[in-house]
Amino acid sequence: MSSMSVFGKNAKGVSDIYCPQCSDTLLHREYENYSCMKCGFQSDYRGLQEMSRHGTALKMQRKIHPEPQPDGTVSQAVYVRPETWENLRRKHPENLMHTLSDVFDGLAANGVVITFDEDARKLRAMGINNGAQMVTAMETARMVEAERNQLISTLGLLKGSLDQFRAQG
Ligand SMILES: [Zn+2]
To answer: How far, in Å, is the centroid of ligand 1 from the Cα of 92?
Structure first.
């Protein structure tokens, strides 16, 4: 992340701009209009340029190379909450399109298990962050259960033998 006090020559289109009011939130850009989802700040590109010229330091973040379109995909308009989109971009700065494409494929093929909020938090708290860990955890749980059942039946046999022994004695 770099901090600049003036707009670079090619700043437009290559940098994300942080909100000049809250400074930790990236401005959401729609065409020439910039807005902050957190404090409601709004400006167009020209307005930001003016602010910069008059001494407001605008923090920018160079955009990572645009991600190539995943093979065999088409562009579709989808509705998404702006704050969600910003979080997604932050979480997957280099592979968001491929990640979403995989999620869409999985959803369509019933190959996705979705956990929300509380369940997801519980899983994370148990150290489970992905599908492979989930499968391992379930397999381990089944194995432990099988071993437990084995032990219970062994104990049952032992108790039977003991009762028999006592009855004889
Ligand atoms: Zn703001």
So the answer is: 22
Domain residue limits at 16: 3-62
Whether 11 and 45 map to the same domain: the answer is yes
Q: In what order do the strands lie in the sheet with 58-62?
A: 2-4, 58-62, 15-17
Dist. CA 39 → ligand 1 center (Å) = 4
Question: What's the number of domains the chain is made of?
Answer: 2
Q: What is this structure's pTM?
A: 0.44
Judge whether 72 lies within some domain.
no
* Cα of 85 from ligand 1 centre, angstroms: 16
Q: What is the pLDDT along the chain (169 residues), one digit of tens a residue?
A: 344 444 444 444 457 889 999 888 889 888 889 999 999 999 998 999 899 899 888 888 776 667 889 999 999 999 999 999 989 988 888 889 999 999 899 889 987 788 888 888 999 899 988 888 989 999 999 999 999 999 999 999 999 999 988 988 7
56 with 8, same domain: the answer is yes
- Report yes or no: 27 and 19 within 8 Å, Cβ to Cβ: yes
